[in-house]
Amino acid sequence: MARKRYAIPQYGTVIMAGKEYYRTRIEDADGKRVALYGRTREELYDKVLEAREQIEDNTFRRSSPTVKEYCEKWLLLQSAQVRATTLTDYTSKVNRHIIKPLGHMNIADVTADDIRLALVPVSKKSASVYKSVNILYKSIFAAAKESKVIQDNPTIYLSGKNGGVPQKEKNPLTDDQVERLLDAIRGLPPYVFVMLGLYAGLRREEILALQWDSVFLDEAAPYLTVCRAWHTEHNRPVIMSELKTKAAHRDVPLPDCLAKCLREAKENSTSDYVVANSEGEPLSYTQFKRLWQYIVTRTVKERSYYRYENGKRVKHTVKPVLGERAAHNGKVVYSLDFEVTPHLLRHTYITNLIHASVDPKTVQYLAGHENSKITMDIYAKAKYNRPDELAGILEDTFTLWDAE
């Protein structure tokens, strides 16, 4: 933008080192008077304009809120526009991935490089997490610019892609892996959770909010209704009737193996919740992590833990060997040479529906996908990524063409 110019004022002069200079004084951002010099009136005039721009910019930056202050204001504004479940997700990600690394900075001082550095740890997570955090950064800084809290938006240079970090393809569990997983945890706390993921395709928040009043085992065709969602606030469980999307509310038929599992679980249950803690209440976040550790400790994934020995914190690394028993717990056998996540159970369910030739619209309904594109992306990868089957189809097709 061109700098406005007015009539060049008259300046005083001063002799320094035998040379004449034009001189004037202005107040800096702290209110102190400082002198500026130039060999010509035009040179001094340009210096004055430049200095005033810098002073205005510094004053603006000092008066701008911190990233933490503005993010909290932005979240408050969002609370009137989005679902409670969405706001909970926003709050968690903003606190963890924006306020934690940048919250102490004035928002007007944040550069694109500051944001890129803050996104490095996020790039090691899933592509969906990276994308959603990236969108949050863009939304918050765009709102700050629109409200004239900042002059320039540093997020316009950010890529929506995962920082150039390739994402590992998540393959569904094979039939053999499913069998080994269930054998490894049969009779243990995560068994019912895993069965619901594998054979009903429920999301983690849907499983942990599921109550017996939504499980209909005495019907001719047993089914369950997804009508609640689990979230945590400060590690405490919050059960909400508001779901992620309208499509998440669905009735899911139960295959025989899952119906049998749930009947046995219900007979021994004293809780309203299908998956509950020892007091019959829904799990906290920490309790869920503890539940999932039953699976993690049975994998061969290398892991570390710390112990205090003689007053010092000592790191120990465990390198499990498939088939061996854990050194400090003879009940644990390292029987899983693959990783398992809650979402992978659901992904396996959806993929198995596709391989069973269930039509895409039915898959979309059972998965609770609001957007058909999500379903079709999974459908395309699962259905058309089998070279052996495609080879047969192509062979028949080109044979037919030859005959014509």
UniProtKB/TrEMBL annotation:
Keyword DNA-binding: yes
Pfam family, one: Phage_integrase
Lineage: superkingdom: Bacteria
Keyword terms of this UniProt record: DNA integration, DNA recombination, DNA-binding
Annotated InterPro entries: CB, DNA_brk_join_enz, Integrase-like_cat_sf, Integrase_catalytic, Integrase_recombinase_N, Integrase_SAM-like_N, Phage_Integrase
GO BP field: DNA integration; DNA recombination
Domain Tyr recombinase, residue spans: 168-395
Keyword DNA-binding: yes
Location of the Core-binding (CB) domain: 65-145
UniProt GO MF annotations: DNA binding
Residue runs in coiled coils: none
Family: Belongs to the 'phage' integrase family.
Function: Site-specific tyrosine recombinase, which acts by catalyzing the cutting and rejoining of the recombining DNA molecules.
Annotated protein name in UniProt: Site-specific integrase
Taxonomic source organism: Intestinimonas massiliensis (ex Afouda et al. 2020)
